Amino acid sequence: MLTTIKEAAAHVGQEVKLGAWLYNKRSSGKIMFLQLRDGTGFIQGVLLKNQVSPEIWEDAKKLTQESSLYVWGVVRQDERAPSGFELDVTKIEVIQVADEYPIAKKEHGVDFLMDHRHLWIRSPKQRAILNIRAEIIRAVQAFLDKHGFTRVDPPILTPSSCEGTTNLFHTKYFDEDAYLTQSGQLYMEAAAMALRKVYSFGPTFRAEKSKTRRHLIEFWMIEPEMAFVDHEESLKIQEQLLAHVVQSVLDHCQAELKTLDRDISALEKVKAPFPRITYDEAVELLHKEGFADFKWGDDFGAPHETKIAESFDRPVFITHYPTEVKAFYMKPDPNRPEVVLCADLIAPEGYGEIIGGSQRIDDPELLEKRYEAHNLPREAYQWYLDLRKYGTVPHSGFGLGLERTVAWICGLDHVRETIPFPRMLNRLYP
C-alpha cells in the first residue's frame, strides 16, 4: 500500500511503498544512499548492492536530482537520522529520470532563485516556510471559528478604494471603472451588521512602488469585523488570536522551525497581554532614541517601528494615532478628537506592523463630515453610509497581514519567501 514519509513512524519494521523524488544521492561502491522527499517529509533510503537485483542497482545509478520514482523498503528506526527513521530499500521503479536540475547544490543569487520559484519551493527551507504558513492559516481560522466568527468572502473587484488612496490597480468592468481590492473591510462591516462577528480571508492588492523587505504587491489578509465590540475588547481579541497562532506553530512545526534555524525562545515570549503605548509615548521614545526630527503628526516608518519594538520582548500595540494620518472611518476618541481609537501591532525583531485595527465611526453625521473632508465620491460609498442609517451600532475590526506574520514567525529577511509565487514591483513571473 502506498504511504508517505510523514507516516513512516507507524510502519517501523514493515515494508512500505513510497512515491518520491530524489533530492540527493551518494554512493560508496557497494552501498547507495538515496535522499528522498515526497512532499510530506524527507527520508534516507539505503540501497545495498548485494541485496537487490542488478537491474534495480543500475536503475538507481541513473537517477538524477528530482527524478521521480516508486520505492519499496523496510522502515527502520535510526536516532542518527534527521527524521528518526531510514528506509532499507528493496526495490525501486523509476517514473522519470529528470533533466539536469537548474538549482544545483551551490549558492544561487536571489534573482535566479526567484526566476525558478516553481522549483525553488521544493527545497527544505522553502517547504518549511510554506508548511508554517499553512499552520498559521489553520490556527487563525480555528481560533475565529471557535470564537463565533463567520467567514464571509468580499469581492475582489470594487468600484472604489477602501481607504481613499490612489495606490490601486485599475481595470475596466465592461463600461465602468473598477479596481482590485486593497481591503475587504468595508464589506465586512456590512456583513457584521447581518452576522455580528465575521472575518474574511483573501488576496488584496496595493499598487505601491515599494521595494522594501516588508512589501508585496499581492498579499493575503485576515480581516475580522465585530458588531457591539469597542476598541478595548478588539485589542484583547487581537492579542489572544496572535498568541494562539504562535503557540500553534510552536506545537505543530518544531521540525520546520529547526530547518529554518529559528530562535524559538523569542516566540515563546509571545503571551497575552501585550504591552501598549500611545502614539504620544512612542514619539517621546523616538526623541529619546535619537529621532529628534520626528514630529507629532508624522506617520511611523520602518526605522521608527523597529526602534520602538526594540524596547519590548513581544509584540507591542501603539494606540491613539493622530486622526489626520489614519483612514476616514476610524472613530475619534470622544475625550480627545484629534486622535482616533485605533492601534497598530508591531512585531519584535524589526518586522514592523502585522495588525492594524480600530473602532469604526458609528455616528451617521460624523461619517458624513469625514466623507466631505476626504473628498470621497458619494456614488461609490452611499451603501457604506447606509450602514449608519439603518441600525448603527458600535463596532470594531482589524486586519492581520499574513505574509508579514509568516516572515516574523519564520525569522526571514524578506517577505518574498512567505508566499508561493510572490508579486513584487518588478516581478510577475513565474
Automatic annotation (TrEMBL):
Cellular location(s): Cytoplasm
Aminoacyl-transfer RNA synthetases class-II family profile domain location: 132-430
Cellular component GO terms held in the UniProt record: cytoplasm
Keyword Ligase attached: yes
Keywords, comma-separated and alphabetical: Aminoacyl-tRNA synthetase, ATP-binding, Cytoplasm, Ligase, Nucleotide-binding, Protein biosynthesis
EC number of the protein: 6.1.1.22
Alphabetical GO biological process terms: asparaginyl-tRNA aminoacylation
Organism superkingdom: Bacteria
Gene3D superfamilies associated with the record: Bira Bifunctional Protein, Domain 2, Nucleic acid-binding proteins
Alphabetized InterPro entries for the sequence: Aa-tRNA-synt_II, aa-tRNA-synth_II, aa-tRNA-synth_II/BPL/LPL, Asn-tRNA-ligase, Asp/Asn-tRNA-synth_IIb, NA-bd_OB-fold, NA-bd_OB_tRNA
Catalytic activities: tRNA(Asn) + L-asparagine + ATP = L-asparaginyl-tRNA(Asn) + AMP + diphosphate + H(+)
GO terms of molecular function: asparagine-tRNA ligase activity; ATP binding; catalytic activity, acting on a protein; nucleic acid binding; transferase activity
PROSITE patterns xrefs: AA_TRNA_LIGASE_II (PS50862)
Keyword set includes Cell membrane: no
NCBIfam families from the UniProt entry: asnS, PRK03932.1, PRK05159.1
Family: Belongs to the class-II aminoacyl-tRNA synthetase family.
Known partners and oligomeric status: Homodimer.
Name assigned to this protein: Asparagine--tRNA ligase
Organism: Thermoactinomyces daqus
Gene designation: asnS
